[in-house]
Amino acid sequence: MLRAFTPPFTASGRSSLVAPPPWHYAGWLLNVEFDCDPTHGAALVPPALGRPTGRGCLHFAHWQACGNGGAELLDPIYAQYRETIVVLELARDGGPPAGYCPFIWVDQDISLLRGWLQGWPKKMGSTWLTLSLPLEHPAAAPLRAGTRLGASLSVKDRRLVEARLTLTGAPGERLGFLARPTIGAVGWADLTQPQDCPQPQFVRADIADVVAPQWWAAEGQITSFAHPVEELELLGELRATRASAGWAGLTVRGALGLSSAR
Amino acid sequence: MLRAFTPPFTASGRSSLVAPPPWHYAGWLLNVEFDCDPTHGAALVPPALGRPTGRGCLHFAHWQACGNGGAELLDPIYAQYRETIVVLELARDGGPPAGYCPFIWVDQDISLLRGWLQGWPKKMGSTWLTLSLPLEHPAAAPLRAGTRLGASLSVKDRRLVEARLTLTGAPGERLGFLARPTIGAVGWADLTQPQDCPQPQFVRADIADVVAPQWWAAEGQITSFAHPVEELELLGELRATRASAGWAGLTVRGALGLSSAR
Amino acid sequence: MLRAFTPPFTASGRSSLVAPPPWHYAGWLLNVEFDCDPTHGAALVPPALGRPTGRGCLHFAHWQACGNGGAELLDPIYAQYRETIVVLELARDGGPPAGYCPFIWVDQDISLLRGWLQGWPKKMGSTWLTLSLPLEHPAAAPLRAGTRLGASLSVKDRRLVEARLTLTGAPGERLGFLARPTIGAVGWADLTQPQDCPQPQFVRADIADVVAPQWWAAEGQITSFAHPVEELELLGELRATRASAGWAGLTVRGALGLSSAR
Amino acid sequence: MLRAFTPPFTASGRSSLVAPPPWHYAGWLLNVEFDCDPTHGAALVPPALGRPTGRGCLHFAHWQACGNGGAELLDPIYAQYRETIVVLELARDGGPPAGYCPFIWVDQDISLLRGWLQGWPKKMGSTWLTLSLPLEHPAAAPLRAGTRLGASLSVKDRRLVEARLTLTGAPGERLGFLARPTIGAVGWADLTQPQDCPQPQFVRADIADVVAPQWWAAEGQITSFAHPVEELELLGELRATRASAGWAGLTVRGALGLSSAR
Fold this sequence. Notes:
- Four copies of one chain form a homotetramer.
- Chain A has 262 residues and is mainly β.
- Chain A contains three helices and twelve strands, in the order βαβββαββββββββα.
- Chain A has helices spanning 38-41, 109-117, 258-261, and strands spanning 23-35, 51-66, 80-91, 98-106, 122-124, 126-129, 148-155, 158-171, 182-186, 201-211, 215-224, 239-257.
- Chain A has a seven-stranded mixed barrel with strand order 1-2-3-4-9-10-12.
- Chain A starts with 22 loop residues before the first strand and ends with a helix.
- Chains A and B meet through helix 2, strand 5 and strand 12 of A and helix 2, strand 5 and strand 12 of B.
- Chains A, B, C, D: InterPro entries: Acetoacetate_decarboxylase, ADC_dom_sf.
């Protein structure tokens, strides 16, 4: 009798890399919305999902995640990770705009697999982002007008994208995956058919308990760099529009197939 | 038209985490065969696959891997990784013994996914192993009688298993996954059915071009440690029997379903 | 004309690992005060400094640091690090109690060298600590009675010490290096006299701009582990007394020699 | 009675980051000699040491190091590290050319401090280099004409320099720090005088037991990148001349002051 949700497939499932949902997440986020040439995005979105509008969002996040009971919070190497998320807005016939995640990089294995199960194509990357601490001190980057925050992502020892934010002092808005449902593409290669590419299935995470009491508006700036493997550069120049910083929590209970998701 | 073997699913597939096989591997390995109580292994092996014999092998490997053309060897952050492998020997009705991998830990994302596609349940872990250098020098650990070599694995900042080898000067033997076919368990959780555990499918890697011209025999010693998540301790005491060190190369071309594998 | 404060010694000093002070620090800290057998501490404190009282404190910190101007906050890989600090209380003849840092482990080079210049004997180690986020969410560990927080330190892939805190809901106290001046031991081996051990000089950091508006009291628990190299175990059992969590900022402007420090 | 060679200053010295020499090193190296504009190097060399000739060498090394007894080889997280070394050739009045190391990056703390004590200005960096394995296999990069090898260095998540080598099949030469004595600059900032820069002292490591039985010649190529902190770009274009690959071992017994070194 096997009770393992993911490998390794032991009888107890204790060592499974990922336990079944619910998965609770809470984190600090820097979000920079951007405009790009919509023709660029087409190579990054499965055609069945719709057409990129030319708007997207870059998120840098420092997450803390746990299951029911919160045991991971007592051994936080199991709870914490940082990631960089790219979300593109899709125009969808007969429906409201949705988001799609073409790229995402994380620094931890549990989150990597949870992402794939949701159709978020996680790879390993090194994300850094300034934290805003509730102190008046030169190193604290407190939440008030004029404070500057930075973030960076490096993939395989090459910097891929950076952002800088300057808080305006005004309230901010929900952006990117925090503003609309995001569709994921799930597909597993079958090594017994090693020359076939999988046809991804599309799902939307079943999210509950979203808390994000306040966002702080910012002026943002994005710098991206060429990379021999990553394809972020297909989006061309990323022209920052709106930006925000703040804390958010949410819970993933599972996923819905796309027909439900539409 | 999607040509991505694994996420992300872009039109070009250039940034896919894993490209289709062939996958070429060459590495330095420390191998320690062990005996353990066979009843312990039952919780770690899918019942359909057979019964653990009580024999297994611990491998510590420093790999270099690439596709055809070898581009990764020019940017070796894409090629190199270290891993620790546990293989158990299975008695199989009507067939020769086979191996099964209940646990494996690696330090790199590309290898993690290649492993999952072959049914090797990789998680992240930190492996260290002494290299044997072709020099007569106190730090070189050259290949001759009396040289001592060490290896260790840490998972989530806790040491899980260590090994020490002393070369005997005699030729060594092929051990563990190098001595017999190893069966993998492939299964993907479906987040739209979040309370169901996947039924794994069993495959055997389709391996070609094995080169391992020489193994150096060693006396081995294994020390394992309790861990709050990992289940290696279910195997009880690991009593080292034979051990060896050496280089090996092999190429994975795909996988065979288990009916072919039997 | 050389203007480098630390290696490398270039003309501009731009690439020096550490720039001259001031060094501004702001961070999130978990602090657990402990009692231990005072005889144990004597092997860890230079005799000239005084006698351990048998009281000490373990700090886990997630820091953000920068110089004047705060450029590091825009490229936070230069600003952020995590560390674990052990402080022992010393009885000092003719003076108030002082602290001494026998051990400290950090995960970043800039902080490592800044520490040595202050007489804090930093080595590399991997520290994790739960963050308290201002959200009501199962993964947020908010600052209220009953919230549980964890921390861990691993050195060379072996877990060395862990702590767990449960917030009481009451205000907390300043503990450890936050409660009293801490003396550091600075000494550099001279490789032209390779068999001599340096005689350390004793300094106290010149600290200004301390901000720590509020501490949250907690019940704490410490578990430490044997280690083949680290000597924390010389302190014997660490019996947690008071504990607290909170944010603190401070600025180091330089250091004072011990005669000033007394 | 203090017996600690480096911090922490405990009675036993067991946990000192660095033990007294001898320090035994054995490793695999990729070496690429280069020409650059000699005027560029002046900002990187203390004037007292001489004048850069415009020739230098870039070394990428995968080291294994230990003290007498070799205990580190049994727990190789204490023995192994990778580093990237830049050496410049100096014209010295009245003496043969010497080398000077303006920059070096390593991935481990023990080596960092051993470097500083020898006047090698180590900072943390991530080095990767292809290993040559004694196998005929596509992933093995064996030592024969036509084999291609790569190396890279990243500092604070930005790639700083890369090299590619193609083995010619001919014997190679000793290059860089392997060809001539290299002078180091040792200097420690004094935090009680926080606005003063130290005047470095110059030393040369006292090296014995050099073994490097064979070098394999290569055609090399270097690509370097701008960096906001590192100053490698002051050397301008690095035009690869000779290159080689191979194993080397050496033992450092201490250091000689420069008057001896001249």
